[in-house]
Amino acid sequence: MSRGRIAGETYPERIRMGLLSRTFTPELVNFVVDEAGAREERTRSLPSRLVVYFVLTMWLFTGCGYGLVLRELVEHWPRRRGEEWRPARTGSLTLARQRVGPGPLRLLFDRVAGVSGSPATPGAFWRGLRLASLDGSLFDVPDSEANGAAYDRASNGDRPGPYPQVRLLALVECGTKAMIGAVFDSFAVGERTLARRLQVHLHTGMLVMADRGFPAFGLWQAAAATGAQLLWRASDSFTLPVDHVLSDGTYLSHLNGPRGARITVRVIEYTVVTAILDTDGVSEETSELFYLITTLLDPASAPARELAELYAARWTSERSSNTSRSSSAAGGLPPCARTALPWSSRNCGPCCASTRPSTSWQLSPADRAHLSVSHISFKQTLAAARRSVGADFSPSPADRQGP
Q: What does the alpha-carbon distance between residue 353 and residue 56 come to, in Å, rounded to a whole number?
């Protein structure tokens, strides 16, 4: 088997899976390019459709320069006898990205985002409710004048951080890690504010989990009004008076709102005991006390142990989601993006490319094996996606011109 090298890492010749172009079909990419009004007015060596695929590929090959990323995308395209590819210069690719703009990527994300699990998908449903989780992250963005004006920097003592930061909040389907919706804003905008922008995705038949940074009267009231059930962790400093103790040891409490308003919640308190095996035998380690608040008030239909286990499973989902983004973002934007289009909240390239490897690309083998997606290696899936980039992508005649 022939071998090649990229960024110092040896890898086998690509298998012809074409995962990128199967998820983001040429027909879909053509549609979003036309819908965004980004179609080129004349024949170009870097047509708009190629530029969109280039941006998606860039997020699979973080740490690589523009030239290597473009080669990964186009080296499998059919060529006429004697035809050779000449690598486009970085400046040409930067100008092409500016010409296309963020519009097609935003439309592309809107098209591919959404749930993908079925009742048969492990971890996607519980007692008829679709499981989802709110998950937030921070990204460094290029230190450009535009980004510096739009986004705040985290402070390090008396000194601002080296890069502006963007806060991402995503609503993720548990069991598949599919991104249902995502919103961006400056580092200074809190997760609670961003969560209100995701409420359009909440609905009856869904159980939404979130960590201890989210509970607040207004946000809880608005989220519950969508018809979705809620299971959020509260901090130990959160006021939860005991109003009524239930048969299973959980209790009813309430959240205090303005002008004496109240919302009844059920509180589940628990600890996690971990058995540790060492040379002296088996010892036990007890975690901190966890507080969960939920709209599910009946212990018979929503056992406390099951809810605690669901929240523990959410941690796995969150860690996997973070692994997905850290593998894609490599601690921020890849070097090849630092001289590219100014990053904005409308640029959904990282969301498109960093979430799909952990959703549809993992979901298919997981379903065949009757396993949870969490049992399918994200890194190996990402490696397979990298190997298959461009493998079965058939460009249009205009796209076949050498860059």
A: 5
Report how far residue 376's alpha carbon sits from residue 342's, in angstroms, rounded to the nearest whole number.
35
For 66-124, the pLDDT digits (tens) are 888 887 777 766 666 766 666 678 888 888 888 998 889 889 888 888 898 899 998 89
Are 172 and 321 within 8 A, CB to CB?
Answer: yes
**Full-model pTM:** 0.74
HSE-CB of 272 using CA atoms within 13 angstroms:
11
Structure tokens that stand for 59 in this block: 């997020």
Among 340, 332, 331, residue whose Cα is nearest residue 141: 332
User: Between the CA of residue 211 and those of 43, 232, 256, what are the distances in Å?
Assistant: 50, 6, 19
Joined tokens for residue 165: 């930061």
Going by C-alpha positions, the residue among 394, 393, 378, 352 that lies closest to residue 59 is 352
| Cβ contact 360:116 at 8 Å | yes
Helices 48-58 & 66-74, crossing angle to 10 degrees? 110
CB 402 within 8 A of CB 44: no
In terms of residues, how long is the chain?
403
Question: What six digits make up the tokens of 91?
Answer: 């400046």
Q: Where are the beta strands (DSSP E) in 147-216?
A: 155-156, 159-160, 165-173, 179-186, 206-210
Instruction: Return d(Cα 10, Cα 118) in angstroms, integer.
Output: 38
Residue type, 348: C
User: Cβ-count burial of 53 within 10 angstroms (0-12 exposed, 13-18 middle, 19+ buried)?
Assistant: buried
Rounded Cα gap, residues 165 and 188, in angstroms? 9
CB–CB of 138/166 below 8 Å? yes
DSSP assignment string, 118-133: -TTSTTTEETTEEEEE
Confidence tier at 316 by pLDDT (50, 70, 90): low
Residues 6+ away with beta carbon under 8 Å from 66: 58, 88, 90, 93, 94, 336
Q: How far apart are CA 387 and CA 76, in angstroms?
A: 11
CA atoms in the 13 A half-sphere facing the CB of 236:
5
